[in-house]
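Posting for a labmate who doesn't have an account.
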Amino acid sequence: MLTRFLVGLFTGALALGAQESPVGASDPLQDLLGTPLTVASRKAMALRSSPGIVTLITREEILDSGARDLLDVLGRVPGFYPGFDVTGVVGVGVRGAWAYEGKLLFLLDGMELNESLYGNLPLLNHLPLATIKRIEIVRGPGSVVYGGFAELAVVNIITLDGSDLKGQAGVRGTLSRMGQDVGRSNLEFGLGDTSSLGTWSLGAYLGRALESDQVYTDPNLNQVDLGEEQHTRNIHVNAGFRQGGTHVRLLVDRYTIRDTNRFGPVNAPKDAGFDSYHLQASHEFRVSPSSTFVLGGQYHWQKPWDTSFTKFVERAGLTGLFSVELGRSASLQAGFSVLRDDARLGANATQADFFQGGMWPSLRLSSHAVFAQAILPTVLADFTLGARYEKTSASGSALEPRLAVTKVLDRWHFKLLWAGAFRSPILGNFALNPNLEPERTRTLEAEVGLRTGTNGLLTLNAYHNSILKPIIYRAGNDETYYNATQLETEGIELEYHLKAEWGFANAGFGLVGPRENGVEVFQVPGNSSAIVAVPGAQASLLVSFKVGRHWSIVPSATYMSPRHGYGVGLVAGPTVVKTYPATLLLNGNLRWQAEPGSLRGWNASLGVFDLLNERPPYLQAYNGGHPGLPGPSREIVLRFGYGF
């Protein structure tokens, strides 16, 4: 049924769009729409013609909103919702599926951020926002281009480089009050320049934040004040250099969660560390006037989930990408990747900690992949055809296709997309279950967009997502990973962007529900139309009003419909299913800039988050025996900086 709707939405709107007149010359939104985006195709393309369901978040939107962390930013993107794992880790799900465990790819300046043991990336107060130039998001699979972690979505974070900073240094400090506690205290720094020697940049971030200031109650009715014992700490350094076709980037990221309720019961405070060190280098060779070849190498050394014993993970890889322009906007890309992942235990591990049931003190996986993609403009529409062949040492091989049909027709644009994804089990999955099989995803999407006047863009999309044999985590005494049968979700998403002389407005809306839910730990007993922790409906609104030359007043709101999750009963014992009420989060931010639109000059902002003190909990995104983590109370955030 939804498949017919998707195709009908595309073809019907295509016919309607043919009757519209062209966009006029006065175009306040053109800077946004003309931004060259690479996230959906690795080729620079404008948002409306890009072969994917793409959300672009600008630097202006991030700073004006007063967003506290990446979790705030993603919370306004249709289809993204917050969720809670174990050991105090907060992440996101996408389109009704818990995507935190290796189903959502995070890139920072082209560098993969997901750790290689389980594919995770904690989000609460983790990454600096002041140095971000823009964020490109594909809501949908990107595995044909990027590989397995891009199964459900891709978040591509692009930071300011030397050509943006031009010798200017920026610094920003953040201090917040959460109830009676200091909520977060962060310091961000950036510097960069460009000269005949090359372009370089350096960003640094030091952060500390409470996860909540509320009291947590475990299944045995024991309690702990999270404001006293549970927080995150982060040290982050991002350095880049570019000279001609040579790019080098070094990333140091040390993130720690001090947690009091690892798997549900209250326990003594304990640190869980997520240390990552990344080095990436590439060189672009000009093969001909119309073709290039980029050869790159990467090395990652990580200590994910560093708790009672240390687990070291290393990834080494070689990649190549050949691109050729064929004329009349046609292009061809082909590439390869060779990766090797190694995991080993630290000296403090015991036999019981060993991988694969105590058999091995180390694990190794390797993968080889080739892919090709062609973009072919025609009179009827633009076609993108691609495929990826991947072979892994433990899971065999797979061939995944991609097809996109896009058309920009005056004020209208149309997209019809179909793609597959292949997600092989990775080191941490095999450590608990060496018999796992890969999961495969098939996604059908359609989007219709309309330029409204000279300063607005409205997009509506629908999707059907099917994950076969999803790899699922099961907590408890029999902790393991296993293959469930199938998870199918479907929904619609709407975005509206308005940009004018007085400021801008962004609105988002999404509906999602299960078509078939064969994942037992995602099911809500007695309610087949719901998925654990997933809001069936979401809406967001962000409006920035310019007041004079220097001030911006920025109200925002986020709505989540009722959610179902596990909580504490009236007596001690196992967690019980609860329905958590709908939530309306009202926020406001007042921003002052000495030099608007410039990286020079002083700036300050004062924000209030959760004005109504709703305190929605972070719900565990599966039935793992952990009650929801109480959300933070109203938070007042003060920032002061130069350049940022």
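Reply:
Got it, the structure tokens are right above this. Residues 5-26 have pLDDT under 50 and may be disordered.
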